[in-house]
Amino acid sequence: MKLTPIRGACRDGTCPTIYATDRGTVVVQGYTVTDADVTVPEGRPWSRFRLSC
Amino acid sequence: MPDLSWWLQNFQRSAFRLECLPEYKVPQEEEWLAAFKRDGSLPDLTPENDSWLKLVRTHAQHGCSMRRVRIVSHPLTDYERFELALFSASVKAGEDIRIAGSSPVSTVAGEGRRTGLPDFWLFDDEVAIVLRYDREARFLGTEQAKDLVTYQRMRDLALSRSLEMSAYTARAAR
Lengths: 53, 174
Hints:
The complex is a heterodimer of chains A (53) and B (174).
Chain A: E1 3-6, E2 17-21, E3 25-29, E4 46-50
Chain B: H1 4-10, E1 14-19, H2 30-39, H3 51-61, E2 65-72, H4 78-93, E3 96-101, E4 119-123, E5 127-133, E6 139-144, H5 148-160, E7 163-164, H6 165-173
Parallel strand pairs in B: 1-2, 2-3
Antiparallel strand pairs in B: 1-4, 3-7, 4-5, 5-6
């Protein structure tokens, strides 16, 4: 599967990184956080969504 | 409550960003950074092919100011050299970027943060949004600050102790 990054900017806080795939889906990449300083919702590091358009 | 993405799209007058870490782990920049370290090459980013630059240009066209102060190390880290090189596309799109050197302050062990200052955005002098990173400089999330005045002061201090990108580059070249 080919992944094309749609530029997010973790540096500026507009994460997560979003990729368009060649299968008409979008892949969202985040990190699995193990550091306990900040509470974040649990979730899978990779999620896949189908484009609605 | 409006989040960071909302404010980035919808601020009316001014956006200010203070950026303090010696490096950021940004998944989509990894290949660019590797190429930059290898041979100094950079991606060709324009408002036409890059959503961030498009946002910057749109705000500039509407008279909304986007300013950034980047606190850098001495000497610059590889990431900072890369980021400064990327900044020229942002300046071209309309972002006002200033650079502040940090005196050699001992790094807090394992944290990478040199100044004690937080990374944050300030929008319209109304809301400050703090950015959180983990110890390896990976973005974790945001938090709206309660004490707006503290962040306004940090912004004013950062602006007064920084140089315009062009002045910084000229000085560094000497």
